[in-house]
TrEMBL record, chain A:
Subcellular location: Cell membrane
The organism's place on the tree of life at top rank: Bacteria
Assigned protein family: Belongs to the binding-protein-dependent transport system permease family. FecCD subfamily.
Matching Gene3D superfamilies: ABC transporter involved in vitamin B12 uptake, BtuC
Keywords noted in UniProt: Cell membrane, Membrane, Transmembrane, Transmembrane helix, Transport
Coiled-coil blocks: none
Annotated transmembrane regions: 44-67, 102-123, 130-152, 158-181, 193-213, 244-264, 284-312, 324-346, 352-370
One of the Pfam families matching this protein, by short name: FecCD
Principal location listed in the UniProt entry: membrane
Membrane topology listed for this record: Multi-pass membrane protein
Protein name: Iron ABC transporter permease
Automatic annotation (TrEMBL), chain B:
Highest rank taxon of the organism: Bacteria
Protein's UniProt name: ABC transporter ATP-binding protein
One GO MF term attached to the UniProt entry: ATP binding
SUPFAM superfamilies linked: P-loop containing nucleoside triphosphate hydrolases
Keyword Nucleotide-binding: yes
Keyword terms: ATP-binding, Nucleotide-binding
Lineage per the UniProt record: Bacteria, Bacillati, Actinomycetota, Actinomycetes, Geodermatophilales
Domain ABC transporter: 4-237
Length: 381, 266
């Protein structure tokens, strides 16, 4: 005899109930699991697709001059579909000030949330967020340098960039440094990337603090506001680039969804599934950093949304990236519009920076979700 | 069914030669064991076969195709699947999602899951007895259940060669036997790194004994696993006998006298 007598085959594990499974039971079980996951996702996406425009319209109506949603819609209709423009003051407030502002808040929130979701997969760590790789610290240092040294450097290349241009370049320079430091034996090592990013962040933050300390009091408010994030003063011109980058990057990332799933399983597994982990990781890193840099350069350092929005969606529909990314974008966008709205209302006429609101409003919400959920964001085995 | 051959495989890691001029043959449809102590290079050899590692020299051939230089990563993954020692994804995927990842090398990034994809996933889950847990979180499964799910993921790749790296690690006795029984029944060519020499003797058609990155013996378990070789490679005394029911080679082990304190067992 060549082989041992057959060992009792693999019995179905932990089937609940005592009913003997029918022949097609496995196929039915799998189809049922598939259907329930799809249904959960469709429900979330539908909710977000309905909630986002509602939030945008409500936020556009709220402010020092409250404007009812019906009037907001009338202004939008006049501009988008043509038709009679109503009261010029209302039109001015809604179309020139509030709509660009709420749209920018949406785009910034969506971009940071998507970047956070991707970076959590790239470094395979649930604590990762758009800022963990030092990209934000680099952008902040460059922006603060322009804000505080503006007088000294006027006429130089740095000053002519403006705050957004400098922030973008600062972000890219930091990314290049982090990638260079994160390489080991010709490969991008997730743990090394993370540590290089964190270490570099501290260094850049120290430099930023030093610039703040030696800045004039009248510059300090602008610096602080920028560091804490704001979409105040947004106009239509600020929207084009971030929106284009958000749409292109998110589309590309959703198409990479399967590679992202494979990457989360580890580099060896990714390789065995035909996904070249190293190349994919570098591409994803560049795209996530570009997303972050573009929105930081217009809105400053908005924290928290990039960490929490992806986790909220994972808690609801799981980490599958082709579902995660679109839902995360919508949730992050809507969340930041609300955060901006709250920041405008609670201390009016004073405006609170976005970071203050995202933390105060977002943390309790996230903790409640975390306690109620059976899923674990880190999913530690 | 396909034949897997490694020709003159050499791997250097951090300047040290881990595997040197290694030749290895897995006939089509056979189950071949890769044996050797910790650090002998078993995982390194396997990682080159499923493309996680680029060898410094040599080739990996499936039938007559050099999969490392002639095929891209996706085409390679359609021929060779692996069950690695990774304990699955870090985030909280469901069993169904984990197994569906096995279809990645067959899917274009634009396409949705096809009927075939779904049927294969359901079939593989049924085959490993995990269909009832399809909607369950992978992280919450027991070690044995996880291994079954990871095997199902490898199966939906529809590979011609299956690579297993310590597939029975952390499993209880019944699950070890059931898993290898299942693997034997698949009809694909299997190359498996195994620690348990008795499992290798029971389930492998052929074994290769690896020592410091070099194959020191190849052949049937009976021919390769001699008491002298086991003493030289593993540093333990082995006692050969016959399994009372299967009639196959059975090994029992005892410590060799310690080289540090002659006459005193380790």
């Amino acid at each position: 005899m060549d082989l041992p007598p057959p060992v009792a085959g693999l019995a179905p594990a932990r089937v609940t109930g005592s009913v003997a499974p029918a022949p097609s039971a496995p196929a039915r079980d799998v189809a049922a699991a598939d259907r329930s996951a799809r249904r959960r996702y469709r429900r979330l996406l539908l909710t977000l697709l309905v909630a986002s425009p509602v939030v945008l319209v409500l936020a556009a109506g709220a402010g020092a001059v409250p404007i009812p949603p019906a009037d907001v819609l009338a202004v939008l209709r006049a501009h988008l579909l043509g038709g009679p423009v109503g009261e010029p003051v209302v039109d001015q407030i809604i179309w020139q000030v509030r709509v660009p502002r709420v749209l920018l808040a949406f785009v910034v929130g969506a971009a940071l949330a998507v970047a956070g979701a991707v970076l959590q997969a790239v470094v395979r760590n649930p604590l990762a967020e758009p800022y963990v790789l030092g990209v934000s610290a680099g952008a902040s240092l460059a922006a603060v340098a322009v804000l505080t040294l503006g007088g000294l450097t006027s006429g130089t290349a740095l000053a002519s960039l403006g705050v957004p241009g400098a922030a973008f370049l600062g972000a890219l320079a930091t990314l290049v440094a982090v990638v260079a430091l994160g390489r080991r034996a010709g490969r991008l090592d997730p743990a090394r990337l993370l540590l290089a990013g964190v270490a570099l962040s501290y260094l850049l933050q120290a430099a930023t603090s030093w610039l703040q300390l030696r800045s004039a009091p009248n510059q300090l408010a602008a610096v602080l506001f920028w560091l804490l994030g704001t979409v105040g003063g947004a106009d239509w011109g600020d929207l084009a680039l971030p929106t284009a980058v958000l749409v292109l990057a998110t589309t590309w990332l959703v198409l990479q969804g399967r590679s992202l799933n494979a990457l989360l399983a580890g580099d060896d597994v990714a390789a065995s599934l035909g996904v070249a982990a190293d190349r994919v990781r570098l591409q994803l890193l560049v795209v996530a950093a570009a997303l972050t840099a573009v929105v930081i350069s217009v809105a400053g350092g908005v924290g928290f949304v990039g960490l929490v929005a992806p986790h909220c969606v994972r808690l609801l529909v799981g980490p599958e990236h082709r579902r995660l990314l679109p839902a995360t974008a919508l949730l992050g966008g809507a969340f930041l519009v609300l955060a901006d709205l709250v920041g405008r209302l609670v201390a009016a006429p004073l405006e609170l920076p976005l970071n203050v609101v995202t933390a105060v409003a977002g943390v309790p919400f996230f903790l409640v979700l975390l306690r109620r959920s059976t899923r674990i964001p880190g999913g530690g085995a | 069914m396909s034949r897997l051959r490694l020709r003159g495989l050499g791997v250097e890691l951090g300047g040290a030669t881990v595997v040197d001029a290694l030749d290895l043959d897995c006939p089509a449809g056979s189950v071949v064991g890769l044996l050797g102590p910790n650090g002998s290079g078993k995982s390194t050899v396997l990682r080159t076969v499923y493309r996680a590692l680029r060898p410094t020299s040599g080739a990996v051939l499936v039938d007559d195709e050099d999969v490392l230089s002639d095929l891209d990563a996706r085409a390679h993954a359609r021929l060779v699947a692996a069950m690695t020692q990774d304990q699955g994804p870090g985030f909280d995927f469901t069993v169904l999602e984990v197994v569906s990842t096995g279809r990645v090398p067959h899917q274009s990034s634009l396409a949705r899951e096809s009927r075939t994809d779904r049927d294969l996933v359901a079939g593989a889950l049924a085959r490993v007895g995990m269909a009832a847990l399809a909607g369950r979180s992978f992280a919450e499964l027991s070690g044995g259940e996880k291994q079954r799910v990871l095997l199902a993921r490898a199966l939906v790749q529809q590979p011609r060669v299956l690579v297993l790296d310590e597939p029975t690690n952390h499993l209880d006795v019944a699950t070890q036997l059931a898993l290898l029984e299942l693997v034997r029944g698949l009809g694909v060519t299997v190359l498996a790194a195994l620690h348990d020499l008795n499992l290798a003797a029971t389930y492998c058609d052929a074994v290769h004994l690896l020592h410091d990155g070099v194959v020191v013996a190849s052949g049937t378990p009976d021919d390769v696993l001699t008491e002298e070789r086991i003493a030289a490679v593993f540093g333990v005394a082995a006692h050969r006998s016959r399994h009372p029911t299967t009639g196959r080679l059975h090994l029992s082990f005892s410590p060799l006298p310690s080289p540090f304190h002659p006459g005193v067992p380790l």
